[in-house]
Write a structure and sequence with these properties.
The protein is built from nine helices and ten strands. It is an alpha/beta fold and 327 residues long. Bound molecules: zinc ion (ZN).
Length: 327
């Protein structure tokens, strides 16, 4: 995800005044107290947290060298995710597990393709309607050294989201929704959202059958236990879905960061792969946390994860998909 303006803005407001910091949050809507509607909560999903954390470590390992689009590290990450999709039994689309997206850009002179990894779980009641769950697996590779480290591991950004796809796939394979789900680990987000822009142009189903994009980008740490579900500001029909999950969520599920009212750089609508779906008029829910000190720095290492928050964030996202599907 690209949020350098946000980071600068938040640091600036924090340094200036309390009211400035509050202004950055004007659009944020915190959840109601748990007690308000707790009776309506079904048990949350149980997920394979061991696999989740193991996949995170693998994708964020130095051997993947920051997973820059077109690099050997990104190919390694692609193949790792494809093997995981195989292992949890996600159906392979008729055109294949790997989707090649042609890349032609002067900014990427040595890159001719982005690679998406796709898997399907068929719905039970309305299999012809779809939810597409995306997370980018690429990051920015090797760059300017900081504190003697030049590998930008991109652990939260976005090994966290990509790793969640496989365990969510495993969960939904065992507990399918009414709608079908396409899981897509997408490439090249950091260098122009090549994977997601290519995906919406060549979906394995008619685009008009896609009811929702759920996008994960940076979901594993927040000191305040806050996870944002951005999108309802653009698609008001999603507000009730998030509101139904809020009192049941084991994290502080927030709305906001999805309209110009959030302030300069704080509207995340265009800042990750959900933008490609939004551009096609497909409603999105983007799940992510606010920037942290390791954002786009070599220190974005797997050991900075907050495992409890991470697991609960993924369970919250699953619950949101279930609530959406049930409406
Ligand atoms: Zn990202």
């Amino acid at each position: 995800m690209k949020r350098s303006i946000t980071a600068v803005f938040l640091i600036a407001t924090a340094a200036c005044s309390q009211s400035g910091a509050a202004r950055a949050q004007d659009n944020a809507q915190p959840p109601q107290p748990q007690s308000a509607v707790a009776g309506a909560c079904a048990p949350l999903a149980r997920i394979d947290s061991t696999s989740l954390l193991r996949d995170l470590e693998r994708l964020a390992h130095d051997s993947m060298a920051g997973r820059l689009i077109g690099s050997p590290g990104a190919i390694k990450a692609r193949d790792y995710l494809a093997a995981r999709f195989d292992a949890v039994g996600l159906e392979t689309p008729s055109a294949g597990r790997l989707q090649r997206i042609p890349v032609s850009s002067q900014r990427l002179p040595n890159v001719d393709a982005a690679w998406n990894v796709l898997g399907i779980v068929r719905g039970t009641a309305r299999p012809e309607r779809w939810i597409v769950i995306t997370a980018h697996y690429d990051h920015v590779g090797i760059g300017r050294p900081l504190d003697g480290d030049s590998i930008y591991n991109g652990s939260d950004d976005n090994a966290s989201g990509a790793s969640a796809l496989a365990v969510m796939g495993q969960y939904f394979k065992e507990n399918p929704l009414g709608r079908s789900i396409l899981f897509a680990a997408v490439d090249g987000e950091e260098r122009g959202m090549w994977g997601s822009r290519g995906l919406v142009e060549s979906l394995p189903m008619p685009i008009e059958t896609v009811d929702l994009n759920i996008n994960l980008d940076m979901v594993y740490r927040n000191e305040r236990q806050e996870l944002y579900a951005a999108g309802p500001g653009r698609y008001p029909q999603l507000t009730a879905v998030v509101e139904a999950v809020q009192p049941c969520a084991p994290v502080r599920l927030m709305m906001g960061h999805d309209t110009p009212a959030a302030g300069p750089g704080n509207d995340w609508t265009g800042q990750s792969d959900h933008a490609a779906f939004h551009a096609k008029g497909i409603p999105f829910l983007y799940f992510g946390v606010e920037d942290h000190p390791d954002y786009h720095r070599p220190g974005d290492h797997a050991e900075r994860a907050m495992p409890g928050f991470y697991v609960n964030a993924v369970r919250t996202i699953i619950e949101t998909a279930r609530r959406f599907d049930a409406r």
